[in-house]
Design goal:
Elements (H helix, E strand, L loop, with lengths): L1 H13 L8 H27 L7 H12 L6 H11 L2 H9 L7 H30 L5 H31 L1
């Protein structure tokens, strides 16, 4: 196929049926003739496989945008692929929202906001859970108090032991 295209282009250039004003225009013609369909098919296949998995939604959005570029998907089909690829918990919350996003940009924006809020609440829960278990005292202070109490117990036990020995032998 390349040989036929090559001959046609050379003929068209020689007869001045076609002219390219720049090398970029010529390369664009080559890409249009040979690369367009394959690249788009690869992008579509990649778009159908991409998933958020353990990444933040922000990382997923950036990767999704990269893959979607050149796939030919726009509007609803693009939104459907985005929904399919994101984690179920975020997707459910967005789908159950009173005002569902309309455009892909709104989906990106709301998903990122929801994911950031969720991650912040998880950090806060861990922080508060850690405080609750230590009754609000810093862990290092608790360890110091525990050590002092243990030391006093050992000291007290040692005094009792030596008192008993003293009484018993004298």
């Amino acid at each position: 196929m390349t040989n036929i295209w090559n001959k046609n282009i050379i003929e068209e250039l020689e007869t001045e049926e076609i002219e390219f004003e720049s090398v970029g225009e010529f390369l664009a013609e080559i890409r249009r003739e040979f690369g367009g369909g394959d690249e788009e098919s690869v992008k579509v296949a990649e778009l159908k496989k991409i998933e958020q998995e353990g990444r933040t939604i922000e990382e997923f959005v950036q990767d999704f945008k990269r893959v979607a570029r050149g796939s030919g998907y726009k509007g609803c089909p693009l939104i459907e692929e985005f929904k399919r690829g994101m984690n179920g918990s975020i997707r459910r919350k967005l789908m159950e929202a009173e005002n569902q996003p309309g455009s892909i940009k709104q989906w990106f924006k709301k998903a990122i906001a929801l994911d950031c809020n969720w991650r912040e609440s998880r950090r806060e829960e861990k922080r508060l859970k850690g405080r609750k278990e230590t009754n609000g005292a810093p862990v290092s202070r608790l360890l110091t108090v525990d050590f002092i109490l243990f030391f006093l117990f050992i000291f007290h036990f040692t005094l009792l032991y030596f008192s008993f020995l003293f009484f018993f032998y004298f």
